[in-house]
Amino acid sequence: MSSEGNQQGEAPEGKTQQREKVYTIRGLDPDLYDRFTKVAKEVGVTVGDLMNMAMSNLLVTLEASKDAAQKASSKVSRIAEKLKAAQSAAIKTMVSVVGDFDLISDIDELTVSKNDLLALDKPVVFSNIKRLVFSPDVDWDTINSKVRSIKVVNELVVPKGIPMLQLAKKCQLVKRIVVQE
Questions:
Q1: What pLDDT, in 10s, does the model give residues 123-156?
Q2: Rounded to an integer, what distance in angstroms lies between the CA atom of residue 158 and that of residue 140?
Q3: Fewer C-beta within 10 Å: the chain N or C terminus?
Q4: Smallest Cα–Cα separation from 143: which of 114, 175, 178?
Q5: What's phi and psi for 122, nearest 5 deg?
């Protein structure tokens, strides 16, 4: 019901009648609603106008909070990426200083055969690989002589017959070792 119309819904002189939709809101706290209506009267606006202002302000605040959270999340992601790159660069620098082994790093998935390992001139360090798979032709003697260490690997897949504790001594921060069937 328009606040400008009379009790029967007629429009005042010179105004066209505007029918407003009535909304029912269940579950309102009666004390809070009473306080809200008193504030509306004190400010000189209708309860509907004050409710529209309150809802609008709440939505603006929520959207601003959401935007701020997204920006913060984006900044945290960028910082994490920079830290990861710095860690990888530090490992590569350390490797180049020592220089007595090759480093293979920063790969999502890698499958290595016995021939791959035998073709290397120096021992190898596998680092920061999500999934590292040794082919079924790779035996313990080849791993023992060619693999210096395996670091920061989510999943390491090895052929059956590899001595697990001997292999584990070469591993650091490997989340899971799986034996191929």
A1: 998 988 999 999 999 999 999 999 999 998 999 9
A2: 10
A3: C
A4: 114
A5: -120, 165
